[in-house]
Amino acid sequence: MVIGVGNAGVGILDRLNIENPGMTGLMIINNDSESLGASIVTKKITLPYGDVRDGFLSVEEDFAKSIEGSASVLLCGGLGGETASVMIPLLAARAKTMGLVTLACVGIPFGFEGKQKGELANSALKKLRGVCDSVAVIENDRLTGSDPTQSSVGTAFQLSDDLLYSSVRALQGMLITAGPMKITRGDLALALGDATPMNFGYGRAEGGNRLHEALERALRSPLMKKKEGPSVIGDARMILLLLRGPKDLSFAEMQVALEEVERIAGKKCQIKAGVDVSALSVSELEIFIIATPDAPDLSVEEKKLEEVLDKVSPMASTQGRPKKEIATRVKQHAVVAKSNSMNNQTQGVLELDSYQRGRFDKSEPTIVEGEDLDVPTFLRRGIKLVTPSK
To answer: What are the backbone dihedrals phi and psi of residue 350, each rounded to the nearest 5 degrees, phi first?
Structure first.
């Protein structure tokens, strides 16, 4: 089941329905009766006006009945608005109680949309991380590039809608593709497990050079770019690659796509590929890419601190920990150390009396079971030391 929540979710599912006539397993949930009435999706749940949590309680049983028998649920919408921000985590939690594989694909609002929207979106995202098997996050601020002043508001919102829609199609395609090559739910969980903003690329093309054109567009997508430097794919530890096309999609095209992605990402990157040849178009090829970045390399100072942590305490040791966790722990200690140094406080000396035992301090000897422990063992036991021969 693919479930659109709120106005953005309704828009996504309408586009799915238009581009894939006859597609089943679609449902929309909203409290905007005008939006629901205009939608071409047939299965709808209307939320009453008022408190969204109360609205959820009034439709919870209808929702549960609607998803019975499904293997998985994919919830989508734009966080920041109250309907999607409150409803999507509640619906996801309900689906999980029914034992369903539960995923979410959500957009995070632009910074200029206001602090309140951002806080509501982040709160909802935190809840989703706690209940979903996988969460795909589209961070809108990444869409405007390094210079937001060069992007118009209309273009930015349209690009946001397009990428959120394409992301939902990618996840839906990966979940339902039967083969001949398949991306599993486990692959999705590994790629999206930490619910960080997703590195996502999408491209489509047709004609004799469709593979190269679609792949180039996917690699040049806004969410595949870093703020500075080359594409994120060069630092990826895992890549999901889905090719969707007609039945004449050739083995050679699949091989070229894999070789080109591996060439850019490097042989250490794990690449999982899927092929869907159920597309209705007779010539169009689509490529979807999800790239999971590796943890950043530690700086020289952080590596030194890592070594100190390993020696100081077994609890603090970073040995055997994932690279990303090591970086996080080391940076946390670095922040604490920097904070302490900025306080400009000096360590005082406690006035404590020192007391030592031992005959060298003219105190009584340490006698245990009749033996003076201040005398070296080899002398107490009469062991003769022999100089090794050269």
So the answer is: -75, 135
Determine the Cα–Cα distance for residues 182 and 170; give it in Å rounded to an integer. Answer: 13
Give just the sign of the alpha carbon dihedral 4, 10, 11, 17: positive
With vertex at residue 203, the alpha carbon angle to CA 197 and CA 208, rounded to the nearest 5 degrees, is 160
Q: Are 243 and 254 in contact (CB under 8 A)?
A: yes
> Which amino acid belongs to residue 142?
R
pLDDT reading at 209 higher than 50: yes
Q: How many residues does the chain have?
A: 390
Confidence of residue 55 (pLDDT cuts 50, 70, 90): very high
- Cis, peptide link before residue 109, omega less than 30° from 0: no
**Is there a contact between 266 and 220 (Cβ–Cβ < 8 Å)?**
no
Residue ranges of E strands in the chain: 2-5, 26-30, 44-46, 72-78, 101-108, 134-139, 199-205, 236-244, 270-276, 285-293, 367-368, 371-372
| Planar angle of CA 345, 351, 356, nearest 5 degrees | 125
How many Cβ atoms from other residues are within 10 Å of residue 283's Cβ? 13
Query: How far apart, in whole angstroms, are the C-alpha atoms of residue 291 and residue 239?
Result: 5
pLDDT in tens, 211-269: 999 999 999 888 988 766 567 888 888 999 999 888 878 888 889 999 999 998 888 89
- DSSP letter (8 states) at residue 181: S
Q: How many degrees, rounded to 5, is the angle at CA 328 between CA 323 and CA 334?
A: 125
Domains and CATH numbers, the chain: 1-176 (3.40.50.1440), 197-294 (3.30.1330.20), 300-342 (no CATH)
Structure-token pair, residue 209: 């050079």
> How far is CA 222 from its chain centroid?
17
